[in-house]
């Protein structure tokens, strides 16, 4: 074999393997969910290519091959396939979950019009990629073979595999076949959710079920994730029109609300209450129960000086049990804090914090998130420079803005970095409307001319992404409609980016879900409810579509987006700023990363 047909990558798997072993991969069976999802995505991609290239074969199925004698489990798809470059550089963290149960993994893959290559893991966290000179040249597809650890052989049992299919794969729309050593001539179709139970146990050839009756399609499609559902709109025109069908949209809404988002497991809610005009009064409460009946007051870190000012939590949740605390606009440093172990770190100043006496600095914090590739926690902020001038005639103090800079703090490096290409990026002066999701910090940014956009910053690749808002409010429903009178609230709803809009001085709300950042056309309006009497503004959202509002008299109230019932909680926050965040306890030490 020629040298240029072999690629050796030493120690490149270590960051992904470290990330894999963090808490969200503590459940080993998650590997099955990740690998089947990858296979399904590969089949989705070939479906779209087939719409424009009719010569592509239509073998859209997944095969599972448990081989007890070899202690191997293979997952085979006939999807888009992987090129040599894909094998070398484009595996995500989900793929590496295979090493939760296997000591060795081999991937054989081929894309149309490309050679077939083999990816093989090696001891010591490195792998090799070689050209398969013995390939029989299938048209396309990927075969992932896991060499299971001796204590993980239960994943070769038929009953275990079927249970995992039921538990994790009900959203998969492609056929999944299981091979059996006792009957090697047939493949058992094991995911026929939409047929009679007696058919579930029938041994079926691969060609079975090439056509789905039209009356079954809405029920099946409604169970798909919104991202997959939007993609399938390209397959048939009638499927796109389903979004205009009220019955189908009700199915979508109900399935979305019932969707299980793993972050909510073992998470509790934290209320941060701050007296609006009282500089030194911010109170933090750990709450549980449907009505906040159990309220435990938390003590802020004792090291925080009394003159720090009002304290706020950056984002809508802790990250691995760590909060980022900050003051608003002033030059007090941000703080990283893990309440479970009472560990506390003051983020150092940056060179941009020091200016001449005639200048003033305004600091606005925008994001706190986690870079899984570098195992690093990062903070995003905007520093605004202003010139102080005195106007004796008006007896006022004017501040003239002269420039700004965006910065990112790295806990691992314990330093700030100037973010290039940040000029013109809209910022947010709001404490709310900011959160972290899957490697990105998001906030609702606005400019002086009332132009608003969702701003997303990719912490791994240092890339800005801007998404315009949806046209979610019917303009003809309001007299003399003006866009600047639309109120927007950005939330994380069941693991998805959600935007809630209402027109000024009205209490009818419109909630849209974003399928893909950077693509305005992927906003999907899911909920419209109201008018809701006696409420003023939303505070936050928890799981199952419950929205926390403040009422006219200062009480907190949950609104159920499924039943449209408003339930007052008996907790009055009149005269206080209220912030709702999720907290999930963790023993991860801040100093571990910093050192």
TrEMBL record:
- Would I find Transcription regulation among this entry's keywords? no
> What is the name of this protein?
F-box domain-containing protein
According to its UniProt entry, this protein's organism is Vigna mungo
Domain (F-box): residue spans on this chain? 206-251
The lineage, from the top, is:
Eukaryota, Viridiplantae, Streptophyta, Embryophyta, Tracheophyta
Gene Ontology molecular functions: ATP binding; ATP hydrolysis activity; ATP-dependent protein folding chaperone; unfolded protein binding
Gene3D superfamilies given in the database record: Histidine kinase-like ATPase, C-terminal domain (3.30.565.10)
What is the similarity comment for this entry? Belongs to the heat shock protein 90 family.
Q: What SUPFAM superfamilies is this protein classified in?
A: ATPase domain of HSP90 chaperone/DNA topoisomerase II/histidine kinase, F-box domain
Q: Which branch of life, at top level?
A: Eukaryota
Keyword terms of this UniProt record? ATP-binding, Chaperone, Nucleotide-binding
Extract the PROSITE patterns matched here.
FBOX
């Amino acid at each position: 074999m020629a040298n240029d047909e072999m690629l050796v990558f030493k120690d490149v798997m270590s960051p992904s393997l470290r990330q894999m072993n963090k808490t969200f991969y503590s459940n080993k069976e998650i590997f099955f969910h990740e690998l089947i999802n990858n296979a399904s995505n590969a089949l989705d991609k070939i479906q779209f290519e087939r719409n424009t290239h009719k010569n592509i074969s239509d073998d859209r199925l997944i095969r599972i091959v448990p081989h007890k004698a070899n202690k191997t489990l293979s997952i085979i798809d006939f999807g888009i396939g992987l090129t040599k470059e894909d094998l070398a550089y484009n595996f995500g963290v989900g793929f590496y979950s295979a090493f939760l149960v296997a000591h060795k993994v081999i991937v054989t893959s081929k894309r149309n019009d490309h050679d077939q290559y083999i990816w093989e893991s090696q001891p010591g966290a490195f792998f090799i990629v070689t050209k398969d000179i013995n390939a029989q040249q299938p048209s396309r597809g990927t075969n992932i073979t896991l060499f299971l650890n001796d204590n993980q052989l239960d994943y070769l049992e038929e009953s275990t595999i079927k249970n995992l299919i039921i538990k994790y794969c009900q959203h998969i729309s492609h056929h999944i076949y299981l091979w059996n050593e006792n009957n090697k001539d047939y493949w058992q179709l094991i995911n026929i959710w939409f047929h009679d139970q007696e058919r579930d146990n029938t041994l079926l050839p691969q060609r079975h079920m090439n056509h789905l009756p039209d009356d079954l399609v809405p029920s099946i499609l409604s169970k798909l994730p919104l991202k997959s559902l939007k993609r399938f709109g390209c397959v048939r025109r009638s499927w796109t029109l389903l979004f205009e069908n009220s019955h189908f949209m009700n199915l979508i809404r109900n399935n979305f609300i019932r969707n299980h988002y793993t972050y909510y497991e073992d998470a509790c809610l934290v209320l941060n209450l701050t007296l609006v005009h009282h500089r030194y009064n911010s109170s933090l409460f750990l709450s549980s129960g449907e009505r906040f009946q159990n309220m435990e007051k938390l003590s802020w870190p004792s090291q925080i000086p009394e003159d720090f000012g009002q304290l706020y939590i950056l984002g809508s949740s802790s990250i691995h049990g760590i909060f980022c605390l900050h003051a608003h606009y002033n030059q007090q440093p941000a703080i990283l804090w893990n309440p479970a172990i009472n560990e506390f770190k003051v983020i150092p100043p940056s060179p941009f914090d020091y200016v001449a006496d005639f200048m003033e600095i305004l600091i606005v914090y925008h994001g706190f998130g986690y870079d899984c590739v570098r195992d690093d926690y990062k903070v995003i902020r905007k520093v605004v420079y202003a010139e102080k001038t005195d106007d004796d005639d008006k007896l006022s103090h004017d501040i003239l803005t002269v420039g700004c800079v965006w910065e990112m703090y790295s806990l691992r490096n314990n330093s700030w970095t100037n973010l290039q290409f940040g000029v013109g990026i809209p910022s947010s002066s709001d404490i709310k409307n900011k959160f972290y999701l899957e490697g990105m910090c998001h906030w609702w940014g606005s400019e002086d001319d009332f132009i608003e956009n969702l701003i997303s910053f990719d912490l791994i690749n240092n890339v800005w992404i801007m998404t315009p808002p949806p046209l979610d409010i019917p303009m003809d429903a309001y007299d003399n409609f003006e866009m600047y009178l639309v109120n927007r609230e950005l939330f994380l709803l069941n693991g998805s980016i959600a935007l809630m809009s209402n027109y000024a001085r009205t209490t009818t709300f419109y909630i849209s879900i974003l399928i893909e950042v950077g693509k305005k056309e992927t906003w999907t309006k899911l909920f419209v409810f109201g008018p809701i009497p006696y409420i003023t503004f939303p505070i936050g959202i928890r799981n199952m579509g419950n929205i926390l509002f403040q009422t006219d008299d200062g009480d907190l109230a949950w609104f159920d987006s499924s039943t449209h019932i408003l339930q007052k909680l008996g907790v009055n926050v009149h005269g206080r700023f209220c912030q709702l965040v999720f907290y999930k306890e963790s023993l991860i030490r801040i100093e571990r990363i910093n050192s």
